[in-house]
Automatic annotation (TrEMBL):
Transport among keywords: yes
The species this protein was found in: Carboxylicivirga sediminis
GO molecular function: ATP binding; ATP hydrolysis activity
Protein keywords: ATP-binding, Nucleotide-binding, Transport
Name by which UniProt lists this protein: ATP-binding cassette domain-containing protein
Upper classification of the organism: Bacteria, Pseudomonadati, Bacteroidota, Bacteroidia, Marinilabiliales
Keyword Acetylation: no
Occurrences of domain ABC transporter (ranges): 2-238
Superkingdom of origin: Bacteria
Family annotation (InterPro entries): AAA+_ATPase (IPR003593), ABC_transporter-like_ATP-bd (IPR003439), ABC_transporter-like_CS (IPR017871), P-loop_NTPase (IPR027417)
Pfam families named in the record: ABC_tran (PF00005)
């Protein structure tokens, strides 16, 4: 579990996160939703330590991130898998080399063991036979799978995904969402996904927090979200004509 405790984050005199507290649960896909500019990416980066927060705390399984010494932070980083916007693959490396990269960086395993682990991850995301291809030779959806395989290479306890569906068509987006959801269950990870895609919310939203102008305005599950009386959340959900129609049809 990851806990955010009253997180504030400012850039100069601009306060972007205004006191966010929540719990991201283990074995669940936790979604952070909100319109563009609401602070989702700043929150995600703050949670993994890419931004220093202005005040508050972050607890990883009850260990305060701010109180950790450098050695503990380094160990924690190896327990964190990250999936960035785009896929951030290395163009000059093959699929297998991309997936092996964190193992090359963080383990002292021999080549055979690293290849075995990389291939396990590649097979897990159903990319058998793509090992020797370069990113430019595979589709956007396949690149995203490679990025997922790389993110789980070190068998992380925590998985962070920033807009995993950006640039993908709706069908491929569903496949990627389902893959993230499946591996979360399979490896019992605490997964946090930033998204403004309502299809993702309805597909994999087990625990959702809604951010509006740097504040958490609501949290709940996909089953609750349509019954919430909150103007900002309704504006966010029903910005999509499809979801507006669904609501009208359900009375
Ligand atoms: N390094 C920074 N310096 C100053 N302001 C920043 C910085 N990073 C983000 N911001 C500001 O913080 C606010 C929230 O940005 P953030 O990227 O978290 O939004 P978001 O909800 O992730 O949006 P999107 O869905 O478009 O990615 C924006 O006003 C942005 O300009």
């Amino acid at each position: 579990m990851i806990e955010a405790i009253d997180i504030h984050k400012s850039f100069d005199d601009k306060e972007v996160l205004k006191g966010i507290s929540t719990k991201f649960e283990k074995g669940k896909t936790n979604l952070i939703i909100g319109q563009s500019g609401s602070g989702k990416t700043v929150l995600l980066k703050s949670l993994v330590g890419l931004h220093d927060i202005t005040s508050g705390d972050i607890r990883y399984d009850d260990n305060s991130f701010l109180s950790m010494d450098n050695a503990s932070k380094k160990r924690l980083r190896q327990d964190i898998g990250m999936l960035f916007q785009g896929s951030a693959l290395f163009d000059s490396l093959t699929v297998e080399e991309n997936v092996r990269f964190p193992l090359d960086m963080f383990t002292d395993w021999n080549l055979e063991k690293k290849r075995e682990r990389a291939n396990f991850c590649i097979n897990r995301v159903k990319l058998e036979n793509a090992n020797h291809k370069f990113p430019s030779e595979i589709s956007g959806g396949m690149q995203k799978r490679v990025a997922i395989a790389r993110a789980i290479a070190l068998n992380p306890k925590y998985l962070f995904c920033d807009e995993p569906n950006s640039g993908l068509d709706p069908r491929t987006s569903i496949v990627i969402d389902e893959l993230i959801h499946e591996i979360t269950k399979e490896f019992d990870m605490t997964t946090i996904v930033n998204t403004h895609d309502m299809n993702s919310v309805m597909g994999i939203g087990e625990n959702i927090i809604f951010i509006y102008e740097g504040r958490k305005l609501w949290e709940g599950t996909k089953d609750d979200i349509f019954h919430v009386q909150n103007k900002e959340l309704e504006d966010f959900i029903f910005a999509s004509k499809l979801f507006k129609k669904i609501k009208e049809n359900n009375g």
